Amino acid sequence: MLSSQSSAKTGELYTTLVKHKRMMLAIFSILTAFAFLTNVCTGYTFINPVQIVQAITGNSDEGVSSVIFNYRIPVALAAVVSGLALAIGGVAIQAISNNPLASPYTFGIASAAAFGAALLYSLDISLIPLLKISGYAAMMNAFIFALIACLGVLLLSKARGLTAVGMILAGICISFFFQALLAFMQYLATQEALQAIVFWIFGSLYKATTENVLIVTVTGMGSFLLLLSYGWKLTAIQLGDEVAQGMGVNVRRLRIIVLVVAALTTAVVVSSYGVIPFICIASPHIAKSFVGEDVRYLLPCSGLVGATILSMACVVSKIVHKGAIMPIGIVTSLVGIPILLRVLIGERQ
Amino acid sequence: MENAWEQDEKGGLMKKLIVILVILLPFLLALALSGCVQPKPGETKKTVVIQDFLGRNVTVKVPVERIVVLNEIDEVVAVGGKDALQKIVALNKWRYKQWRADWWEEWTNHYPWLANLPDTGQVGQNFNPEVVINAKPDVVLCWPWQYYRLKESGDLKKLEEAGISVIAIQLLPTTANVTEHLDAVSKNIRILGVLFGKEQRAEELVRFYQDQINRVVTRIQQTEKQPKVIVFSTSSPWTIQGKKGYYHVWVTLAGGINLGDRVIEGSSGDVDPEFVLQENPDVIIFTCNNNFPEGIRIVVGYTVNSTEPAKNALKELINRPRWGDLQAVKSQKVYLIHHGFSHEKIFQFFALQCIAKWLHPELFRDLDPYKNLQEFYDRFMPFPLRGVLYVELSE
Amino acid sequence: MKVETLQVCKLSAGYKGKRIVRDVSFEVKAGEVCALLGPNGSGKTTILRCIAGVMRPISGSVLINGKNMRDHMVKLIGYLPQSIEGKLKITVIEYILLGMAINKGFWKVRKEDVEVAHEALVTLGIENLALKNLDELSGGQRRLCDIALVLAKKPEILILDEPTSSLDIKNSFDVLETIRSVTKAEKLITLIALHDLNHAMEFSDHCAVLNSGKLITFGNPVEVLSPQLVEKVYGIYVEKISINGNKRLVTLGSASCGRIKGIIDYEEKKDEKDDIAIYI
Fold first, then answer.
1. Which of A209, B332, B377, C79 would bridge B385 by S-S if both were Cys, CB 3.0 to 4.6 A apart?
2. Cα–Cα distance for residue pair B255/B219, rounded to 1 Å
3. Residue C195 is inside which H or E element, if any?
4. Considering only CA atoms, which of A332, A83, A302 is closest in space to residue A208?
5. Angle subtended at Cα C226 by Cα C222 and Cα C227, rounded to the nearest 5 degrees
6. Residue C187 and residue B56: Cα distance in Å, rounded?
7. Cβ distance of C131 and A232 shorter than 8 Å
8. Which of B322, B324, B326, B353 is nearest to B337 (CA)?
9. What is the C-alpha to C-alpha distance for residues B331 and B311, in angstroms, rounded to an integer?
């Protein structure tokens, strides 16, 4: 009797717990939608939501609707999908390396991508020569090198048995390697190429086109669903390899799959829009304080947090100095630093 | 009878005279020889104190025989003439090869021996002070930012200890006040004149430059129109010239309004695409360094013979949403110009004149910037001008 | 599929080529508790890890019902490692569900799953901890949760490496009793690594005594654990006594520390009676 009573109570409490998490997800979904809308509304001129609805339904004048469809919406969509993709990459890497400061960037993905672009601008080398004229050469170079970095991390960490620590060390090596190569490219570059490289590194959502938004969306969604299916295992792996293995998780295989998926997702974003810092690291931490560490909830929540932050950063970059666009990397860095500090200080407790 | 003492005295005096003569002989010889060596007219070596662009007082023996050029050699040759070229003992080859490859090609085509000169390296990158010291120059020419770098790194001290003077010059247009600008440019050119003992030629050059600038500035008074202009870079889609950019000076002097002035505080930065649509500029200029988002593509420069590549590039560049409705695009007032002719050059008047012509075509119907540049080359440069340096959208 | 027997056949295992365990063979049947005994470093953990599938042996095999079932082992096994260091910001009930989800392969948590998890907590008497965060628990409470996790998976083979470490006297007893009754009730195969020899005598049907990686003896602990064996394997002096018919071992001294006085008196009086008060 007592047992079934307490069982019912536990059941209730558990349901409350789950409801709380679901509510958090709902709230963040609304926040993301709101941030997206704000992003679409802000710009050199403020377009109020009513006008946006009119534009979508085809009831507004050409000028306004063209601005909305050609500039505002692609950039705002890019902010949402990139924020999501970067955030879930961050969750994935943090889980498999069991380290709160790990991210696809610290694994060298971003430096490798930047190097790929620099290779094109400095030495005019395109890994897929046909793409040179299409304007996708830099993006392709960046993407391919990001995957090479991922492969490098895998091979190097295999030497250490694909442990969490092994991956981090391998990631650091690869990161330094590509940073050195990048510096070398800058050394060889013409003055203008240097400018192009720096501009590329800085990251800009204004490179958004229908194509790259679609690519990022598809990749992001695909990775999200795959990683979500591994939700329990990614939570378990943070308890330690032995424990996770004892539970039945094939830790080696999981690490490989998750690394490749995270690298792919990040590579697509970085090669399309450049390096946008801090979303990878900050989003999971913010989300954790709302939904805990169950990856089944952490993953979507982080994604939404990332989308919101990046959308708001985009808004800030547009209004800081009307008429000019502040590089988005600067805004996300300014937001990200206090968050990281909070994480570091929080850990000490 | 003669005094024996007197006889001795006479002999002693003789001896003394001989001794004195012997002692004085080298001095006499020196005097005689120096009298024979007549200095060529105008090349009397003298020590002067030059005030460089940074206001430093530098003591130099002029005319200089050996010079190291850390910036660019066009001005040296423009003022000093062909023989000034011979006086270059080392230069910043690295910068030429990396950042001005087509100009370097032109120079070495005409003067292959330039390629064999020692390379000092670029200041702040791979600069090697030993190369400079070994070349034993009388003076080193550089830009102000290079001077500061040399000072920071301690290389300046090394050069000064080796007895080498460093002179900083700058021709960058920083102010839209014509008088100030002309003053600044003239001052720097005159420094070169003193250095090479070619004060007269320097004056000619200064007058030529002033004249070219004035051809625009004086006539501008005749119109009240001030077309709105935006100057884009070609390497990144939304980067434009701002308040402190050199194009800002040219556009202002050419009687236009640089819209970038309103939104970009620095010399360049990213503009909000909507700003462009909203402000609807009358003229759009692309300043091209042969660098595009998809990589390097040579469309303007000495080595380009056809306007096709540049025109195609221009067509691609204006292919942006809603740009078909822009005033500039509709009236085909979209232009592309070589980036290198716009700043830090004695022939930068070319940029000003092109812009003036594009902004006020009726007013400057008779102005031919290319011809003026050609004249400059014929008079002051050791090889003729060639190549496509700008294009317009219209045929 | 019901597990009837588990056979360890000539198992040799180690790390980086060094053999820790040499040629160990024994068999456990369904419904039996087998205790692994031996001093530190004798290979208990290594053997358990091999059986759990967490480690690959250098040679030999583990057979279930006579067949090598490496791939299916995962679903059948509930493995409790010696220590779980990982920290996670989740509640106890979610922790239990985590173990269940990975084992059973479900993604969404249903009401029935929560009930099963709750039951496991009840079995160990920690149902009041259900909504507490893992990092708020004491070492012993955490250990109880870990055991609950293993039980909640409803495995056919229980592999527990020192389950009583960090548990107090009462909890140690209760936990081992629970394990024994569950093993009997569900006809599980249970292997436990233990340090306390009396626990082994009380709760296990067989024991495998290891020393330096070799199997010294296998059998009923009450019979097998003699003072001579214990002195040889552990290097401590014990005396086997009988209390109300239950045989127990009492530690009297250690080879390095020397014998404790009073044993001589006992030696004399030993022959007089069977049940006797304990002389220390």
1. B377
2. 10
3. none
4. A83
5. 140
6. 97
7. no
8. B353
9. 16
Considering CB atoms only, which of A71, A321, A322 is closest to B321? A71
Q: What CATH number corresponds to the domain at position B100? A: 3.40.50.1980
Q: Are residues B133 and B276 in the same domain?
A: no
Does one domain contain both B370 and B303?
Answer: yes
Give the residue among C26, C3, C36, C4 at the shortest CA–CA distance from C199: C36
d(CA A274, CA A199) in angstroms, rounded, equals 8
State how far the Cα of B175 lies from the Cα of B168, in Å rounded to an integer: 19
Angle at CA B217, nearest 5°, toward B215 and B222? 100
Q: What is the mean pLDDT of residues A27-51?
A: 92
> How does pLDDT run across B44-75, given as a tens digit for each residue?
788 889 888 888 898 888 889 999 999 988 88
Q: Which long-range contacts (CB under 8 A, 24 or more apart) does B71-74 make?
A: B71/B141, B71/B142, B71/B143, B71/B146, B71/B169, B71/B344, B72/B96, B72/B100, B72/B344, B72/B345, B73/B107, B74/B103, B74/B345, B74/B346, B74/B347, B74/B381
Which chain B residue has its CA at the smallest distance from A327's CA? B270
Query: What confidence tens digit (pLDDT) does each residue in C169-223 have?
Result: 999 999 999 999 999 999 999 999 999 999 999 999 999 999 998 999 999 999 8
B188/B287 same-domain check:
no
User: Counting Cβ atoms within 10 Å, is residue C168 exposed (0-12), middle (13-18) or buried (19+)?
Assistant: exposed
CA distance C15 to chain A (A): 13
CATH value at residue A163: 1.10.3470.10
Give the CA count within 13 Å in the CB-facing half-sphere of C184. 8
DSSP collapsed to 3 states, A309-346:
HHHHHHHHHHHCCCCECCCHHHHHHHHHHHHHHHHHHH
- Tokens describing residue C129: 């901890």
Quote the number of domains for chain A. 1
Within chain B, residue ranges assigned H as helices are 4-36, 74-80, 82-86, 93-99, 101-110, 129-134, 144-153, 155-161, 178-196, 199-220, 246-253, 260-263, 273-279, 308-317, 327-330, 349-359, 369-380
- Structural tokens at position A49: 């939501």
This prediction's pTM: 0.81
**Lookup: tokens for B95:** 């910068």
Tell me which of A120, A187, A192, A326 to substitute to probe the interface with B (most B C-beta atoms closer than 10 Å). A192
Distance, CA of C177 to CA of C147 (rounded, Å): 13
Residue A82, SS3?
A: helix
Residues of A in contact with C86 (CB under 8 A): 98, 238-240, 243
Question: B129-134 long-range CB contacts below 8 Å, 24 or more apart?
Answer: B129/B155, B129/B158, B129/B159, B131/B90, B132/B68, B132/B90, B132/B159, B132/B164, B133/B158, B133/B159, B133/B162, B133/B164
Establish whether the linkage from the previous residue to B63 is cis, with ω within 30° of 0.
yes
Which chains would you list as touching A if contact means 3+ CB atom pairs under 8 Å? Answer: B, C
Q: Is the ipTM of this complex over 0.90?
A: no
Q: Minimal CA–CA distance to A95: which of A270, A338, A298, A279?
A: A298
